[in-house]
Design a protein that fits this description.
Elements (H helix, E strand, L loop, with lengths): L11 H4 L10 E2 L3 H26 L5 H8 L5 H28 L3 H18 L9 H15 L3 H10 L3 H29 L7 E3 L4 E3 L4 H19 L12 E2 L4 H8 L9 H33 L3 H33 L1 H18 L10 E2 L39 E2 L13 H30 L5 H29 L1 H22 L6 H12 L1
Parallel strand pairs: 5-6
Antiparallel strand pairs: 1-4, 2-3
Helix pairs in contact: 2-7, 2-8, 2-9, 4-5, 4-6, 4-7, 4-15, 5-6, 5-9, 7-15, 8-12, 8-14, 11-12, 11-14, 11-15, 11-16, 12-13, 12-14, 13-14, 13-16, 15-16
Length: 527
Protein backbone atom coordinates (compact mmCIF):
# COMPACT_ATOMS: atom_id res chain seq x y z
CA UNK A 1 0.00 0.00 0.00
CA UNK A 2 1.28 3.46 -0.87
CA UNK A 3 2.04 5.81 2.02
CA UNK A 4 0.86 9.37 2.42
CA UNK A 5 3.40 12.04 1.66
CA UNK A 6 4.18 14.92 4.00
CA UNK A 7 2.42 17.94 2.61
CA UNK A 8 1.63 21.16 4.50
CA UNK A 9 -1.60 21.50 2.51
CA UNK A 10 -2.86 18.14 3.72
CA UNK A 11 -5.38 18.66 6.54
CA UNK A 12 -4.78 17.40 10.06
CA UNK A 13 -7.79 15.13 9.69
CA UNK A 14 -6.17 13.41 6.69
CA UNK A 15 -2.95 12.89 8.72
CA UNK A 16 -4.91 11.00 11.38
CA UNK A 17 -4.25 7.23 11.49
CA UNK A 18 -6.84 5.34 9.48
CA UNK A 19 -8.10 2.82 12.00
CA UNK A 20 -11.06 1.49 10.04
CA UNK A 21 -9.92 -1.69 8.18
CA UNK A 22 -11.71 -0.63 5.02
CA UNK A 23 -10.19 2.87 5.13
CA UNK A 24 -6.68 1.42 5.40
CA UNK A 25 -6.90 0.60 1.71
CA UNK A 26 -6.63 4.30 0.86
CA UNK A 27 -3.81 6.82 1.01
CA UNK A 28 -3.31 10.40 -0.08
CA UNK A 29 -2.40 10.36 -3.77
CA UNK A 30 1.13 11.35 -4.71
CA UNK A 31 1.96 13.50 -7.72
CA UNK A 32 3.67 10.55 -9.42
CA UNK A 33 0.59 8.37 -8.93
CA UNK A 34 -1.62 11.16 -10.27
CA UNK A 35 0.43 11.53 -13.45
CA UNK A 36 0.58 7.77 -14.01
CA UNK A 37 -3.18 7.47 -13.44
CA UNK A 38 -4.01 10.07 -16.06
CA UNK A 39 -1.57 8.60 -18.55
CA UNK A 40 -3.44 5.31 -18.17
CA UNK A 41 -6.80 7.04 -18.57
CA UNK A 42 -5.59 8.65 -21.79
CA UNK A 43 -4.55 5.23 -23.08
CA UNK A 44 -8.18 4.22 -22.44
CA UNK A 45 -9.32 7.22 -24.48
CA UNK A 46 -7.13 5.96 -27.33
CA UNK A 47 -8.49 2.42 -26.96
CA UNK A 48 -12.07 3.73 -27.17
CA UNK A 49 -11.20 5.81 -30.22
CA UNK A 50 -9.61 2.85 -32.02
CA UNK A 51 -12.59 0.61 -31.23
CA UNK A 52 -14.85 3.12 -32.96
CA UNK A 53 -12.47 3.56 -35.89
CA UNK A 54 -12.51 -0.22 -36.36
CA UNK A 55 -16.24 0.03 -37.00
CA UNK A 56 -16.38 3.08 -39.23
CA UNK A 57 -13.13 2.96 -41.21
CA UNK A 58 -14.66 0.60 -43.80
CA UNK A 59 -18.30 1.75 -43.63
CA UNK A 60 -18.11 3.68 -46.89
CA UNK A 61 -16.37 0.85 -48.76
CA UNK A 62 -18.10 -2.29 -47.43
CA UNK A 63 -20.83 -2.21 -50.08
CA UNK A 64 -18.66 -1.70 -53.19
CA UNK A 65 -16.07 -4.19 -51.86
CA UNK A 66 -18.82 -6.72 -51.18
CA UNK A 67 -20.14 -6.28 -54.73
CA UNK A 68 -16.65 -6.80 -56.12
CA UNK A 69 -15.72 -9.98 -54.22
CA UNK A 70 -19.18 -11.61 -54.26
CA UNK A 71 -21.78 -10.48 -56.85
CA UNK A 72 -24.43 -12.68 -55.18
CA UNK A 73 -24.61 -10.31 -52.19
CA UNK A 74 -27.40 -7.71 -52.06
CA UNK A 75 -28.13 -4.72 -49.81
CA UNK A 76 -29.99 -6.95 -47.38
CA UNK A 77 -26.81 -8.94 -46.75
CA UNK A 78 -24.94 -5.64 -46.44
CA UNK A 79 -27.12 -4.85 -43.43
CA UNK A 80 -26.11 -8.11 -41.75
CA UNK A 81 -22.41 -7.50 -42.42
CA UNK A 82 -22.53 -4.08 -40.80
CA UNK A 83 -24.68 -5.38 -37.93
CA UNK A 84 -22.27 -8.28 -37.31
CA UNK A 85 -19.78 -5.85 -35.75
CA UNK A 86 -22.29 -4.87 -33.09
CA UNK A 87 -23.42 -8.47 -32.56
CA UNK A 88 -19.83 -9.39 -31.78
CA UNK A 89 -19.48 -6.40 -29.48
CA UNK A 90 -22.72 -7.17 -27.65
CA UNK A 91 -21.57 -10.75 -26.99
CA UNK A 92 -18.06 -9.76 -25.92
CA UNK A 93 -18.82 -6.72 -23.73
CA UNK A 94 -20.14 -8.61 -20.68
CA UNK A 95 -17.39 -11.24 -21.03
CA UNK A 96 -14.60 -8.67 -21.02
CA UNK A 97 -16.41 -6.73 -18.29
CA UNK A 98 -16.51 -9.72 -15.94
CA UNK A 99 -12.91 -10.58 -16.84
CA UNK A 100 -11.78 -7.06 -15.92
CA UNK A 101 -13.53 -7.30 -12.54
CA UNK A 102 -11.48 -10.27 -11.36
CA UNK A 103 -8.19 -9.96 -13.25
CA UNK A 104 -5.82 -7.11 -14.15
CA UNK A 105 -7.53 -5.07 -16.83
CA UNK A 106 -4.47 -5.23 -19.04
CA UNK A 107 -5.35 -8.86 -19.86
CA UNK A 108 -8.78 -8.28 -21.51
CA UNK A 109 -7.54 -5.08 -23.13
CA UNK A 110 -4.57 -6.79 -24.83
CA UNK A 111 -6.56 -9.90 -25.83
CA UNK A 112 -9.42 -7.85 -27.29
CA UNK A 113 -7.02 -5.63 -29.25
CA UNK A 114 -5.19 -8.72 -30.59
CA UNK A 115 -8.50 -10.18 -31.78
CA UNK A 116 -9.29 -6.94 -33.63
CA UNK A 117 -5.86 -6.96 -35.31
CA UNK A 118 -6.31 -10.57 -36.48
CA UNK A 119 -9.85 -9.87 -37.70
CA UNK A 120 -8.71 -6.87 -39.75
CA UNK A 121 -6.06 -9.03 -41.39
CA UNK A 122 -8.75 -11.62 -42.21
CA UNK A 123 -10.86 -8.88 -43.83
CA UNK A 124 -7.93 -8.01 -46.09
CA UNK A 125 -7.92 -11.59 -47.41
CA UNK A 126 -11.65 -12.20 -47.96
CA UNK A 127 -11.10 -11.90 -51.73
CA UNK A 128 -8.86 -15.00 -51.79
CA UNK A 129 -11.45 -17.84 -51.44
CA UNK A 130 -13.21 -18.93 -54.62
CA UNK A 131 -16.69 -19.00 -53.05
CA UNK A 132 -18.67 -17.85 -50.01
CA UNK A 133 -16.61 -14.65 -49.86
CA UNK A 134 -19.47 -12.69 -48.33
CA UNK A 135 -19.56 -15.06 -45.36
CA UNK A 136 -15.84 -14.61 -44.77
CA UNK A 137 -16.43 -10.86 -44.72
CA UNK A 138 -19.31 -11.38 -42.28
CA UNK A 139 -17.02 -13.41 -39.99
CA UNK A 140 -14.23 -10.84 -40.16
CA UNK A 141 -16.52 -7.97 -39.20
CA UNK A 142 -18.07 -10.00 -36.35
CA UNK A 143 -14.59 -10.68 -34.94
CA UNK A 144 -13.65 -7.00 -35.21
CA UNK A 145 -16.77 -6.25 -33.17
CA UNK A 146 -15.88 -8.98 -30.66
CA UNK A 147 -12.52 -7.29 -30.14
CA UNK A 148 -14.31 -3.97 -29.63
CA UNK A 149 -16.13 -5.52 -26.67
CA UNK A 150 -13.44 -3.97 -24.48
CA UNK A 151 -15.63 -0.85 -24.27
CA UNK A 152 -17.21 -2.06 -21.00
CA UNK A 153 -13.77 -2.75 -19.49
CA UNK A 154 -12.55 0.69 -20.59
CA UNK A 155 -15.48 2.53 -19.03
CA UNK A 156 -15.29 0.41 -15.88
CA UNK A 157 -11.61 1.29 -15.49
CA UNK A 158 -12.22 5.01 -16.02
CA UNK A 159 -15.09 5.00 -13.49
CA UNK A 160 -12.80 3.39 -10.89
CA UNK A 161 -9.73 5.49 -11.69
CA UNK A 162 -11.41 8.89 -11.27
CA UNK A 163 -12.69 10.79 -8.27
CA UNK A 164 -16.29 11.95 -8.12
CA UNK A 165 -15.37 15.43 -9.35
CA UNK A 166 -13.29 14.00 -12.22
CA UNK A 167 -15.67 11.30 -13.35
CA UNK A 168 -18.21 13.31 -15.32
CA UNK A 169 -15.55 15.06 -17.39
CA UNK A 170 -13.66 11.79 -17.96
CA UNK A 171 -16.81 10.00 -19.10
CA UNK A 172 -17.65 12.87 -21.43
CA UNK A 173 -14.14 12.76 -22.89
CA UNK A 174 -14.48 9.00 -23.38
CA UNK A 175 -17.74 9.37 -25.27
CA UNK A 176 -16.20 12.17 -27.31
CA UNK A 177 -13.30 9.91 -28.32
CA UNK A 178 -15.77 7.19 -29.24
CA UNK A 179 -17.93 9.53 -31.30
CA UNK A 180 -14.93 11.12 -33.03
CA UNK A 181 -13.75 7.62 -33.95
CA UNK A 182 -17.11 6.86 -35.56
CA UNK A 183 -17.00 10.11 -37.50
CA UNK A 184 -13.33 10.23 -38.53
CA UNK A 185 -13.08 6.58 -39.58
CA UNK A 186 -14.52 7.36 -43.04
CA UNK A 187 -12.02 10.22 -43.32
CA UNK A 188 -9.17 7.72 -43.07
CA UNK A 189 -10.99 5.61 -45.69
CA UNK A 190 -11.06 8.58 -48.04
CA UNK A 191 -7.29 8.95 -47.89
CA UNK A 192 -6.89 5.40 -49.20
CA UNK A 193 -9.16 5.89 -52.22
CA UNK A 194 -6.14 7.37 -53.99
CA UNK A 195 -4.73 3.82 -54.18
CA UNK A 196 -7.65 2.80 -56.41
CA UNK A 197 -9.53 -0.48 -56.78
CA UNK A 198 -6.60 -2.38 -58.24
CA UNK A 199 -3.79 -1.03 -56.09
CA UNK A 200 -0.71 -3.18 -55.55
CA UNK A 201 -0.63 -6.98 -55.37
CA UNK A 202 1.96 -9.12 -53.59
CA UNK A 203 1.42 -12.52 -55.12
CA UNK A 204 3.80 -14.22 -52.71
CA UNK A 205 1.45 -13.61 -49.77
CA UNK A 206 -1.73 -13.19 -51.87
CA UNK A 207 -2.23 -9.65 -50.54
CA UNK A 208 -4.00 -6.96 -52.51
CA UNK A 209 -3.28 -3.48 -51.14
CA UNK A 210 -6.10 -1.34 -52.52
CA UNK A 211 -8.70 1.18 -51.41
CA UNK A 212 -10.69 -1.62 -49.70
CA UNK A 213 -7.93 -3.48 -47.85
CA UNK A 214 -5.56 -0.63 -46.97
CA UNK A 215 -7.93 0.87 -44.34
CA UNK A 216 -8.23 -2.40 -42.38
CA UNK A 217 -4.48 -2.98 -42.56
CA UNK A 218 -4.02 0.54 -41.22
CA UNK A 219 -6.49 -0.32 -38.46
CA UNK A 220 -4.48 -3.45 -37.67
CA UNK A 221 -1.33 -1.33 -37.42
CA UNK A 222 -3.06 1.06 -34.99
CA UNK A 223 -4.18 -1.94 -32.95
CA UNK A 224 -0.58 -3.15 -32.64
CA UNK A 225 0.47 0.34 -31.52
CA UNK A 226 -2.32 0.30 -28.93
CA UNK A 227 -1.12 -3.05 -27.54
CA UNK A 228 2.42 -1.70 -27.23
CA UNK A 229 1.18 1.39 -25.38
CA UNK A 230 -0.91 -0.74 -23.01
CA UNK A 231 2.19 -2.74 -22.06
CA UNK A 232 4.47 0.30 -21.88
CA UNK A 233 2.30 2.97 -20.24
CA UNK A 234 -0.95 1.55 -18.85
CA UNK A 235 -0.98 0.82 -15.10
CA UNK A 236 -3.72 -0.37 -12.75
CA UNK A 237 -5.04 2.51 -10.64
CA UNK A 238 -8.02 3.05 -8.43
CA UNK A 239 -9.04 6.04 -6.34
CA UNK A 240 -12.04 6.59 -4.09
CA UNK A 241 -14.60 9.36 -4.54
CA UNK A 242 -12.32 11.82 -2.71
CA UNK A 243 -9.37 11.05 -5.00
CA UNK A 244 -7.39 9.00 -2.46
CA UNK A 245 -5.22 6.20 -3.79
CA UNK A 246 -6.72 2.74 -3.59
CA UNK A 247 -4.11 0.41 -2.13
CA UNK A 248 -5.57 -3.05 -2.75
CA UNK A 249 -4.43 -5.11 -5.72
CA UNK A 250 -6.84 -7.95 -5.01
CA UNK A 251 -9.29 -7.58 -7.89
CA UNK A 252 -11.80 -10.10 -6.56
CA UNK A 253 -11.86 -8.32 -3.19
CA UNK A 254 -12.18 -4.96 -4.91
CA UNK A 255 -15.06 -6.16 -7.05
CA UNK A 256 -16.88 -7.61 -4.06
CA UNK A 257 -16.51 -4.51 -1.93
CA UNK A 258 -17.43 -1.70 -4.29
CA UNK A 259 -21.17 -2.03 -4.72
CA UNK A 260 -22.29 -0.83 -1.32
CA UNK A 261 -25.20 1.26 -0.21
CA UNK A 262 -26.17 3.28 -3.26
CA UNK A 263 -28.45 0.95 -5.27
CA UNK A 264 -31.68 2.38 -3.85
CA UNK A 265 -30.61 5.94 -4.56
CA UNK A 266 -30.27 5.55 -8.32
CA UNK A 267 -33.26 6.80 -10.32
CA UNK A 268 -33.90 3.74 -12.47
CA UNK A 269 -36.60 5.48 -14.52
CA UNK A 270 -34.00 8.04 -15.60
CA UNK A 271 -31.47 5.24 -16.24
CA UNK A 272 -33.89 3.34 -18.50
CA UNK A 273 -34.87 6.54 -20.30
CA UNK A 274 -31.24 7.44 -21.08
CA UNK A 275 -30.62 3.89 -22.29
CA UNK A 276 -33.56 4.18 -24.70
CA UNK A 277 -32.50 7.64 -25.90
CA UNK A 278 -28.94 6.41 -26.42
CA UNK A 279 -30.33 3.47 -28.40
CA UNK A 280 -32.20 5.86 -30.69
CA UNK A 281 -29.15 8.11 -31.15
CA UNK A 282 -26.88 5.21 -32.13
CA UNK A 283 -29.68 3.66 -34.22
CA UNK A 284 -30.15 6.72 -36.43
CA UNK A 285 -26.40 7.26 -36.85
CA UNK A 286 -25.93 3.60 -37.82
CA UNK A 287 -28.70 4.09 -40.41
CA UNK A 288 -26.98 7.22 -41.66
CA UNK A 289 -23.58 5.52 -42.10
CA UNK A 290 -25.04 2.35 -43.61
CA UNK A 291 -27.22 3.93 -46.25
CA UNK A 292 -24.85 6.68 -47.44
CA UNK A 293 -23.00 4.64 -50.10
CA UNK A 294 -25.98 2.69 -51.57
CA UNK A 295 -28.13 5.84 -51.57
CA UNK A 296 -25.62 7.97 -53.45
CA UNK A 297 -24.85 5.18 -55.94
CA UNK A 298 -28.58 4.82 -56.66
CA UNK A 299 -29.48 8.51 -56.74
CA UNK A 300 -26.48 10.05 -58.48
CA UNK A 301 -25.18 7.15 -60.63
CA UNK A 302 -21.87 7.19 -58.82
CA UNK A 303 -19.45 4.33 -59.37
CA UNK A 304 -18.16 2.36 -56.40
CA UNK A 305 -14.95 4.38 -56.28
CA UNK A 306 -16.77 7.68 -56.68
CA UNK A 307 -19.21 6.80 -53.88
CA UNK A 308 -16.38 5.97 -51.48
CA UNK A 309 -14.36 9.05 -52.41
CA UNK A 310 -17.18 11.62 -52.45
CA UNK A 311 -18.86 10.32 -49.30
CA UNK A 312 -15.48 10.29 -47.60
CA UNK A 313 -14.90 13.93 -48.51
CA UNK A 314 -18.36 14.89 -47.27
CA UNK A 315 -17.85 13.01 -44.00
CA UNK A 316 -14.40 14.56 -43.64
CA UNK A 317 -16.04 18.00 -43.57
CA UNK A 318 -18.73 16.68 -41.22
CA UNK A 319 -15.99 15.24 -39.00
CA UNK A 320 -14.30 18.64 -38.72
CA UNK A 321 -17.69 20.11 -37.87
CA UNK A 322 -18.19 17.49 -35.16
CA UNK A 323 -14.77 18.11 -33.60
CA UNK A 324 -15.69 21.78 -33.30
CA UNK A 325 -19.01 20.75 -31.72
CA UNK A 326 -17.17 18.66 -29.11
CA UNK A 327 -15.01 21.65 -28.23
CA UNK A 328 -17.99 23.97 -27.86
CA UNK A 329 -20.61 21.74 -26.29
CA UNK A 330 -18.99 21.44 -22.85
CA UNK A 331 -18.79 25.20 -22.42
CA UNK A 332 -22.34 25.70 -23.65
CA UNK A 333 -23.69 22.97 -21.35
CA UNK A 334 -22.46 24.90 -18.29
CA UNK A 335 -24.82 27.71 -19.21
CA UNK A 336 -27.83 25.86 -20.61
CA UNK A 337 -27.58 22.43 -18.97
CA UNK A 338 -27.15 18.99 -20.54
CA UNK A 339 -30.89 18.29 -20.86
CA UNK A 340 -31.60 21.32 -23.05
CA UNK A 341 -28.65 20.52 -25.32
CA UNK A 342 -29.78 16.89 -25.64
CA UNK A 343 -33.24 18.09 -26.63
CA UNK A 344 -31.76 20.47 -29.21
CA UNK A 345 -29.54 17.73 -30.63
CA UNK A 346 -32.50 15.39 -31.16
CA UNK A 347 -34.42 18.17 -32.92
CA UNK A 348 -31.46 18.74 -35.25
CA UNK A 349 -31.28 15.01 -36.06
CA UNK A 350 -35.02 14.99 -36.79
CA UNK A 351 -34.56 17.91 -39.19
CA UNK A 352 -31.65 16.10 -40.86
CA UNK A 353 -33.70 13.02 -41.70
CA UNK A 354 -36.81 15.03 -42.60
CA UNK A 355 -34.80 16.84 -45.28
CA UNK A 356 -33.91 13.46 -46.83
CA UNK A 357 -37.55 12.65 -47.66
CA UNK A 358 -37.95 12.50 -51.48
CA UNK A 359 -40.03 15.17 -53.17
CA UNK A 360 -40.44 16.61 -56.64
CA UNK A 361 -41.01 14.78 -59.93
CA UNK A 362 -37.56 13.89 -61.26
CA UNK A 363 -36.75 10.18 -60.97
CA UNK A 364 -33.28 8.67 -60.43
CA UNK A 365 -31.43 7.22 -63.42
CA UNK A 366 -32.07 3.51 -63.91
CA UNK A 367 -29.39 0.85 -63.99
CA UNK A 368 -29.93 -1.89 -66.56
CA UNK A 369 -28.91 -5.33 -65.41
CA UNK A 370 -26.58 -6.80 -68.01
CA UNK A 371 -27.57 -10.12 -69.52
CA UNK A 372 -24.47 -10.81 -71.64
CA UNK A 373 -21.07 -9.27 -72.32
CA UNK A 374 -21.97 -5.95 -70.61
CA UNK A 375 -24.33 -4.62 -73.27
CA UNK A 376 -27.73 -2.97 -73.01
CA UNK A 377 -30.41 -5.30 -74.38
CA UNK A 378 -31.40 -4.42 -77.96
CA UNK A 379 -35.10 -4.87 -77.29
CA UNK A 380 -36.91 -3.59 -74.27
CA UNK A 381 -40.48 -4.05 -73.28
CA UNK A 382 -42.66 -1.58 -71.45
CA UNK A 383 -43.89 -4.58 -69.47
CA UNK A 384 -40.62 -4.34 -67.55
CA UNK A 385 -41.77 -0.99 -66.22
CA UNK A 386 -44.60 0.04 -63.99
CA UNK A 387 -47.78 0.97 -65.91
CA UNK A 388 -47.39 4.61 -64.92
CA UNK A 389 -44.02 4.92 -66.63
CA UNK A 390 -43.46 5.05 -70.36
CA UNK A 391 -40.19 4.30 -72.08
CA UNK A 392 -39.49 7.84 -73.39
CA UNK A 393 -39.91 9.24 -69.87
CA UNK A 394 -37.02 7.18 -68.50
CA UNK A 395 -33.40 8.21 -68.46
CA UNK A 396 -30.81 5.52 -68.67
CA UNK A 397 -27.77 5.79 -66.47
CA UNK A 398 -24.51 6.36 -68.30
CA UNK A 399 -23.45 2.87 -69.25
CA UNK A 400 -20.05 1.46 -68.51
CA UNK A 401 -18.78 -1.88 -69.61
CA UNK A 402 -16.82 -2.09 -66.37
CA UNK A 403 -19.56 -1.32 -63.90
CA UNK A 404 -23.32 -0.62 -64.13
CA UNK A 405 -24.42 2.54 -62.37
CA UNK A 406 -27.74 4.05 -61.34
CA UNK A 407 -30.76 2.75 -59.48
CA UNK A 408 -31.13 -1.05 -59.97
CA UNK A 409 -34.34 -2.18 -61.69
CA UNK A 410 -34.58 -4.97 -59.12
CA UNK A 411 -35.62 -2.26 -56.64
CA UNK A 412 -39.19 -1.58 -57.76
CA UNK A 413 -39.35 1.78 -56.00
CA UNK A 414 -36.77 3.16 -58.47
CA UNK A 415 -39.59 3.47 -61.02
CA UNK A 416 -41.79 5.80 -58.97
CA UNK A 417 -39.81 7.39 -56.11
CA UNK A 418 -38.53 10.93 -56.73
CA UNK A 419 -34.82 11.57 -56.69
CA UNK A 420 -33.17 12.91 -53.54
CA UNK A 421 -31.22 15.93 -54.71
CA UNK A 422 -27.56 16.30 -53.82
CA UNK A 423 -28.29 19.51 -51.90
CA UNK A 424 -30.76 17.57 -49.73
CA UNK A 425 -28.18 14.89 -49.03
CA UNK A 426 -25.40 17.33 -48.12
CA UNK A 427 -27.72 19.41 -45.92
CA UNK A 428 -28.77 16.25 -44.12
CA UNK A 429 -25.13 15.26 -43.59
CA UNK A 430 -24.38 18.64 -42.02
CA UNK A 431 -27.37 18.50 -39.66
CA UNK A 432 -26.82 14.89 -38.57
CA UNK A 433 -23.10 15.60 -38.14
CA UNK A 434 -24.08 18.41 -35.77
CA UNK A 435 -26.83 16.62 -33.85
CA UNK A 436 -25.16 13.23 -33.33
CA UNK A 437 -22.05 14.33 -31.37
CA UNK A 438 -24.16 16.66 -29.24
CA UNK A 439 -26.56 13.85 -28.30
CA UNK A 440 -23.79 11.30 -27.80
CA UNK A 441 -21.77 13.39 -25.35
CA UNK A 442 -24.80 14.68 -23.46
CA UNK A 443 -26.21 11.16 -23.06
CA UNK A 444 -23.03 9.85 -21.44
CA UNK A 445 -22.65 12.99 -19.31
CA UNK A 446 -26.22 12.82 -18.00
CA UNK A 447 -25.94 9.07 -17.45
CA UNK A 448 -22.76 9.45 -15.41
CA UNK A 449 -24.28 12.24 -13.30
CA UNK A 450 -27.50 10.30 -12.68
CA UNK A 451 -25.51 7.29 -11.42
CA UNK A 452 -23.45 9.40 -9.05
CA UNK A 453 -20.91 7.71 -6.73
CA UNK A 454 -22.14 4.20 -7.46
CA UNK A 455 -19.60 2.00 -9.31
CA UNK A 456 -20.71 2.34 -12.91
CA UNK A 457 -19.33 -0.78 -14.58
CA UNK A 458 -22.61 -2.72 -14.69
CA UNK A 459 -24.65 0.30 -15.75
CA UNK A 460 -22.13 1.21 -18.43
CA UNK A 461 -22.45 -2.35 -19.65
CA UNK A 462 -26.18 -1.76 -20.10
CA UNK A 463 -25.50 1.42 -22.04
CA UNK A 464 -22.94 -0.38 -24.22
CA UNK A 465 -25.51 -3.11 -24.89
CA UNK A 466 -28.07 -0.45 -25.88
CA UNK A 467 -25.63 1.07 -28.35
CA UNK A 468 -24.64 -2.33 -29.74
CA UNK A 469 -28.28 -3.31 -30.15
CA UNK A 470 -28.90 -0.08 -32.04
CA UNK A 471 -25.98 -0.73 -34.38
CA UNK A 472 -27.33 -4.24 -34.97
CA UNK A 473 -30.90 -3.24 -35.75
CA UNK A 474 -30.11 0.02 -37.56
CA UNK A 475 -28.25 -1.44 -40.56
CA UNK A 476 -30.62 -4.43 -40.83
CA UNK A 477 -33.66 -2.16 -40.61
CA UNK A 478 -32.52 0.36 -43.19
CA UNK A 479 -31.14 -2.21 -45.63
CA UNK A 480 -34.41 -4.15 -45.63
CA UNK A 481 -36.74 -1.13 -45.77
CA UNK A 482 -34.59 0.75 -48.27
CA UNK A 483 -34.23 -2.25 -50.60
CA UNK A 484 -37.90 -3.20 -50.66
CA UNK A 485 -39.78 0.06 -49.97
CA UNK A 486 -37.33 2.83 -50.79
CA UNK A 487 -36.00 5.97 -49.08
CA UNK A 488 -39.41 7.52 -48.44
CA UNK A 489 -40.41 4.74 -46.05
CA UNK A 490 -36.92 4.33 -44.57
CA UNK A 491 -36.41 7.98 -43.66
CA UNK A 492 -40.08 8.53 -42.77
CA UNK A 493 -39.91 5.76 -40.17
CA UNK A 494 -36.67 7.19 -38.78
CA UNK A 495 -38.41 10.54 -38.32
CA UNK A 496 -41.15 8.73 -36.42
CA UNK A 497 -38.63 7.01 -34.11
CA UNK A 498 -36.87 10.30 -33.31
CA UNK A 499 -40.24 11.97 -32.63
CA UNK A 500 -41.11 9.25 -30.11
CA UNK A 501 -37.76 9.80 -28.38
CA UNK A 502 -38.50 13.52 -28.13
CA UNK A 503 -41.81 12.77 -26.40
CA UNK A 504 -40.01 10.43 -23.98
CA UNK A 505 -37.38 13.07 -23.21
CA UNK A 506 -40.13 15.57 -22.45
CA UNK A 507 -41.81 13.08 -20.07
CA UNK A 508 -38.65 12.37 -18.03
CA UNK A 509 -37.03 15.78 -18.44
CA UNK A 510 -37.33 16.73 -14.75
CA UNK A 511 -35.84 13.41 -13.62
CA UNK A 512 -32.64 13.74 -15.63
CA UNK A 513 -30.69 15.47 -12.88
CA UNK A 514 -27.39 14.73 -11.17
CA UNK A 515 -27.38 12.25 -8.29
CA UNK A 516 -26.09 14.88 -5.86
CA UNK A 517 -28.83 17.34 -6.82
CA UNK A 518 -31.51 14.70 -6.45
CA UNK A 519 -30.13 13.54 -3.10
CA UNK A 520 -29.92 17.09 -1.79
CA UNK A 521 -33.52 17.82 -2.78
CA UNK A 522 -34.79 14.77 -0.91
CA UNK A 523 -32.89 15.78 2.22
CA UNK A 524 -34.28 19.29 2.07
CA UNK A 525 -37.87 18.07 1.71
CA UNK A 526 -37.44 15.72 4.66
CA UNK A 527 -36.28 18.62 6.78
Amino acid sequence: MATAVSDPEVSAEEREPLLNPRERRYAVETQMHYMSRWRSIRIMYLTMFLSSVGFSIVIMSVWPYLQKIDPTADTSFLGWIIASYSIGQMVASPLFGVWSNYRPRREPLVVSSAISVAANCLYAYVHVPHSYNKYYMLTARALVGFGAGNVAAVRSYIAGATSLTERTSAMANTSACQAIGFILGPVFQTCFTLIGEEGITWKLIHLQLNMYTAPVLFGAFLGVVNIILIFAIFREHRVDDLGRQYGSVNFAEESAGLDQGTEGNVDHVAVVAINFLFFVILFVFAVFETIATPLTMDMYSWTRQQAVLYNGIILCVVGIESVIVFMVVKAVSKKTGERAILLGGLLIILAGFFILLPWGEKLPNLQWQEIKNNSIPQTTSTEMLTPALSLPAMKLAPHSTAEPVGCPVTQSWCFNTPKIYLAQYISSDVLIGLGYPVCNVMSYTLYSKILGPKPQGVYMGWLTASGSGARILGPVFVSQIYTHLGPRWAFGLICGVVTVSLFLLEMVYKRLIAFSVRYGRVQEENC
